[in-house]
Amino acid sequence: MSRRKRKQSAEDKAEIDLTPMLDVVFIMLIFFIVTASFVKEKSLGLNVPENTDNPPPPDSESKSILIQVNANDEIFIDSRRVDIRSVRSLIAQKSAENPEGGVVVMANEQASTSTYVAIADAAREANIYNVSLVPRAK
């Protein structure tokens, strides 16, 4: 009988207490949940008009500076291809002609975001803060 008692007591000692490990896991979980709530994602604010079948009134179209971007990131102003470096000066020139107008960027869905950001930055350098993005079909 003493042999059985020894065997049972050895099995009792072999058990591992998981309570401290669970405490650590829960503390880590709480830590990650709390720190994840402080992470702020940066986003780009876009003025995207609603998709309507009606064209805009003629007055709003004439006041806006229309910039088109195709799938190859080529920029067109007044149906002329322009370099990204000359966009700011062209926007400033057109803004002087019509100070109430904003900038409307009609970009292809395949165009890169960096092209839109460069155009928006150029418009802001020309003191125009009303920049809208209009997606154009492929």
From TrEMBL:
Chief localisation class = membrane
Q: Name one Pfam family in it.
A: ExbD
Quote the cellular component terms of the Gene Ontology held in the record: plasma membrane
Gene Ontology annotations of biological process type:
protein transport
Q: Where are the transmembrane segments?
A: 21-39
Q: Name one GO molecular function term.
A: transmembrane transporter activity
The record's keywords, sorted A to Z, are:
Cell membrane, Membrane, Protein transport, Transmembrane, Transmembrane helix, Transport
Q: Which Gene3D superfamilies match?
A: 3.30.420.270
What topology does it adopt in the membrane?
Single-pass membrane protein; Single-pass type II membrane protein
Q: Where in the cell is it found?
A: Cell membrane
Question: Member of which family?
Answer: Belongs to the ExbD/TolR family.
Q: What is this protein called?
A: Transport energizing protein, ExbD/TolR family
Q: Which organism is it from?
A: Teredinibacter turnerae (strain ATCC 39867 / T7901)
User: What does the organism's lineage look like at the top?
Assistant: Bacteria, Pseudomonadati, Pseudomonadota, Gammaproteobacteria, Cellvibrionales
